[in-house]
Amino acid sequence: MSQFRAASGGRIDRATSLRFTFDGRAYTGARGDTLASALLANGVHLVGRSFKYHRPRGIVGAGSDEPNALVALSRDAARVTPNMRATMIELYEGLRAESQNRFPSLAFDLGAVNDLLAPLLPAGFYYKTFKWPASWWKRVYEPLIRAAAGLGRAPTLPDPDRYTARWAHADVLVAGAGPAGIAAALVAAEAGARVFLVDEQSEFGGSLLAEDAATIEGKPARDWLADSLATLAANPRVTLLPRATAFGYFAHNMIGVSERVTDHLADPPPHLPRERLWQVRARRVVLATGALERPLVFPNNDRPGIMLADAARIYLSRYGVVPGKRIVVATACDSAYRAALDLRAAGVTIAAIADLRESPDRALLEQARARDIPVRMQTAVAGTGGGRRVTWARLAPLGGGEAERVACDALLMSGGWTPAVHLFSQSRGALRYDLDAQAYLPHKAAEQELSAGACRGVFGLAEALESGARAGEAAAAAIAATGRAAGRGFAVTGGEHGGGGWLGLAPNGQAGKAFVDFQNDVTAKDIRLAVREGMRSIEHIKRYTTTGMATDQGKTSNMNALGIASAALEATIPEIGHTTFRMPYTPVTFGALAGIARGDLFEPVRRTPIHAWAAERGAVFEDVGQWKRARYFPREREGMREAVARECRAVRQAVGVFDASTLGKIEVVGADAAEFLNRLYVNSWSKLGVGRCRYGILCREDGFVRDDGVVGRLAPDRFHVTTTTGGAAGVLAMMEDYAQTEWPGLDVWLTSTTEQWAVIAVQGPRARDVIAPLVEGLDVSRAAFPHMAVAECVFAGVPARLFRVSFTGELGFEVNVPAGFGRAVWEAIVASGQPHGITPYGTEAMHVLRAEKGYIIVGQDTDGTATPDDAGLGWAVAKAKPDFVGKRSLARAAMRGPDRKQFVGLLTEDPAVVLEEGAQLVADAAAAASVPMALLGHVTSSYFSPILGRSIALAMVKGGRGRIGTRLYVPMPTGTVPVTLCSPIFHDEKGARLDD
Amino acid sequence: MLLIPCPHCGDRPEIEFSYGGEAHVARPADPAALSDEQWADFLYARTNPKGVFAERWRHTNGCGRFFNVVRDTISDFFVAGHKDGEPRA
Question: Would the pLDDT of B85 be above 70?
Fold first, then answer.
């Protein structure tokens, strides 16, 4: 056993020795150790280099508030987690940890030169230093700053671990399983409430885990703890979550809890996730989050070996570890005496207690003196020495007089306790500054919440238990739990807290670097500089100095920073206020937040019934929203351009088949269905006969095109409405809005049928030859079933809705069959089409074919600022209708101006040049060379047309229809491309082919 | 995440809903009778108060119904709720 491990005591299993490495060096610890306690047991204090000055740093605390001891843990190349607090890492066999922010090594770090350059690096130096010359911003300053920024290094490989999410409901959620939290959980559970008890540590108990002397209900505190936890564990209505941090208090009593499931295991079983993100909605929340000990701010208070007094007591009590053999205790608080006395009892020499105060607790003072501990009243630490570990402290009487250098190998400090009001404040509860407690305390709850114990300024074991019991009782009563609970109390001996505390810079602290925020290397001097340079608000001081902005969010530093700002501003702390407490309480991994929503599960994937057929034939797919759509079907050695050219020619010359199943479909039914569509769409529907279709345009109330699609009338009271693939959900929501809230008197019912119908488009001059043999009960001849007809029939033995529509400009049919028959019907069509050379085509050919015909795609050729007339669709607007959604807006003068952007075609001078979609159009070639220039419009669609043997493009151009025949220019990085404006219909302008 | 009182389904988490903007902004019965200014006011002007605000939600991933609730925009707590078409709470 090492010289820093006490011979007995602690909650560790001394029989089980665990091997681990730190910076490649092998050590051993015991089961039950944290990485921090194991390193201390090995006499290792130096664990990292500070952020800015690269000063050697040691372990300061024993819990999640640790500012210094951040290490990187690595299980393998992909499982590297930086910035882990050594105090929260449970030791396991084979653990590998590395220190951070040092080069080439922790002991010898080149970055430490920053410490010597400190006069050049005051608060806000980057605002002052990296300003000139501007040419250096990108090439010199940014790389420099980026190289220096950050602490740990992120792993370079994707995270292979699994993270899951759980949602839960609780009557009472208790955050923090110290004495107050356990008492609250016990009482609420006894009353019959469903209780969640969560705690960030591996073991429940909080301060009880290091409580050696007190008794509760006649038992030693630790025995009472074990019995209470057994009682809770046996209650099926109680959920206990250790290693689970309540990190965020969200609206309406939802608590975010990150549970670390396997980080403490040497060989995590593969069936377990690494972490679970719990979202617990609680009817009542009890916050029992305890208090955090403050460091004292004195010169060179950051050397390794200088730690919080109660942290040292916890290391001794829980892990049987002493931080040194000859210790100086600097305090302004009675609780540090307990640490000194316990360490003395463990055989450690207490070289001195230096107390800033005049009169500490008399009983503690007498106990210290009885054990030969020299206590110096009204004495401050004026400085410390030591390189990689503290070796001396200079103790100076406050009233003047000779300072004395006292040798030591560890220095414990206590500036008193800060209630952890983080979650309370996150919940928007109002804080009040309590002058006696020198602390912000919960004042007015915003949520259904109760704070108990030290986090509301109630210190001492008996007081905490009582406070917790009352909170548990009140929470249970509020949700009308009926069990026995009233008046439950706990008899306690011992566990007194004691008072005292100090905020801000300790006296005699003027010289040297007195650190406030260890993690961001902010000194008392920085905060005073910020005040001198004009910062008044604590929020500005925080941002200027970065105090409290590190990963620990200033848990140990914020109150000291406030104290220093208060002195510098000559204003009281309540006058200054406090900075905002933000979630998360401690860092949460991105993995936990992402959960399973990554990779293939990032969002749902929608596949059509014909997807597998296309995949089997080597189709290349593209994402259209959540849909996977076949983009083209390459044959051997074909690239996209060749495949698309072949598919386009097949449609124009013979017949093609296309999977249009993703098309949005809404069944609009009811006596008032036609009236409903009349009011909604720009078109007129009253006169649309049963068995006929019409191309419909839907505007928003502001008059701009929102969606389009073919609408078929199947019966006087039944319409089959199609929408764009991406617009389906939004159109249905818009329809529901009008149906439910504007025109609730209309008899109309809306049903999404997108997923119910498979849609197969058969397009081309031979289309009728392909489908006719498959149709039963319907005459599909040219005369009987003309363009824009719709009918129900039996198709390939399956009930179908057959549309005669075309998005290619060719004779076309769209076969709608129940989705489950989609593939079978598709295959029947393909078989029937073999003699006619039927060719499956994808979305790319579809785009080219429709562009050749000047058919718009809403959202590509329109952008939410195009009216139907702008898009060349003015003919569809029913001018005689008294009203429809958007009509009033279209009547505004600005919506009819001659300079609006209008939909036109473009032909490049060089037929081989395919324009970039999104490219801008300007009026003259010379202007294109200079900026700024007047932009007249932009290219919305651009393709190479195989049937025309040249490029074509569509564009929105100011006054475009009036410019047809004139020339504009497309300035590109490679040169200016002259284009001629033309009609957007490039092929079969009269539409003769549709009526074949 | 808000807990939203759907009058048809009870309290449900916010992810089940879509926001519907300010309540009681009825589409004018005869838009043609309005001046451009009046129409623009209907289209774009909303009260956006600091405090009590009547707003619409749709229980999109639930019953699909629109309803009105009154929310305090300072605290984010709901003050009252009622089914669409019923009188204001």
Answer: no
- The pair of structure tokens assigned to A447 is 């949520």
pTM for this prediction: 0.91
**Apex A969 CA angle, A963 and A971, nearest 5:** 150
Q: Cβ separation of B32 and A254 shorter than 8 Å? A: no
Q: Do B85 and A701 touch (CB under 8 A)?
A: no
ipTM, two decimals, is 0.94
Nearest residue to A561 via CA among A493, A511, A598, A514: A514
Q: Which of A737, A741, A749, A750 to mutate to test the interface with B (most CBs of B within 10 A)?
A: A741
Nearest chain B Cα distance for residue A937, angstroms: 26
Is the four-CA dihedral A644, A645, A648, A653 of positive or negative sign? negative
Taking an 8 Å cut-off on Cβ atoms, the answer to whether A888 and B34 are in contact is yes
Counting beta carbons within 10 angstroms of the beta carbon of residue A525, is it exposed (0 to 12), middle (13 to 18) or buried (19 or more)?
Answer: buried
- Residue B23 predicted with pLDDT over 90: yes
Q: Coil, strand, or helix at residue A197?
A: strand
| CATH code at position B73 | 3.30.2270.10
Token pair in block for residue A2: 């090492």
User: C-alpha angle A597/A598/A602, rounded to 5°?
Assistant: 65
> With an 8 Å Cβ cutoff, are A892 and B85 in contact?
no
Distance CA A738, CA A227 (A): 62
d(CA A968, CA A906): 9
| A607 in any annotated domain | no
| pLDDT for the residue numbered B81 | 59
Which has more pLDDT, B72 or A116?
B72
Asked whether B57 and B17 are in contact (CB, 8 A), the reply is yes
Looking at residue A888, what is its pLDDT? Answer: 97
Three-state DSSP at A5 gives strand
Q: Residue A219: which domain range?
A: 163-291+419-492
Taking 70 as the pLDDT cut, the residues of chain A under it are: 1, 482-486, 509-510, 927-929
Give the DSSP letter of residue A279.
E
Best of B17, B36, B69 to disrupt the A interface (most A CBs within 10 Å) is B36
- Across the interface, of A737, A882, A891, the residue whose CB is closest to B66 is A737
On whether residue B53 sits in a domain, the answer given is yes
- Per CB-CB distance under 8 Å, the chain B contacts of A887 are 31-32
Could you give the angle at which helices A362-370 and A335-345 cross, rounded to 10 degrees? 20
Residues belonging to chain B: 89
Q: Which residues of B touch A281 (CB under 8 A)?
A: 3, 13
Task: Choose among A520, A450, A428: nearest CA to A126.
Answer: A520
Interface of B with A (CB under 8 A): 1-3, 13, 18, 20, 26-27, 30-32, 34, 36, 39, 43, 56, 58, 60, 64-66, 75-77, 84-85
| Nearest CB neighbour to B39, from listed A446, A733, A888 | A888
Q: Examine the domain organization and report whether A187 and A285 are in the same domain.
A: yes
**Residue A428: half-sphere exposure toward Cβ, Cα within 13 Å:** 11
Distance CA A327, CA A408 (A): 5
Among A363, A397, A413, residue at a domain's last position: A413
Number of domains into which chain A is organized:
4
Q: Which amino acid is at A442?
A: P
- Domain around B61: 1-22+43-89
Cβ of A742 and B26 within 8 Å? Answer: yes
- Tell me the C-alpha distance between A950 and A520, whole Å: 63
Cβ B32–A888 below 8 Å, yes or no?
Answer: yes
Which residues from A are below 8 Å from B36, CB to CB?
A: 892-893
Determine the distance in angstroms separating the CA of A182 from the nearest CA of chain B, rounded to an integer: 27
Q: Is the pLDDT of residue B89 over 50?
A: no
CA of B36 vs chain A CAs: smallest distance (Å) = 7
Task: Assess if residue B73 is contained within a domain.
Answer: yes
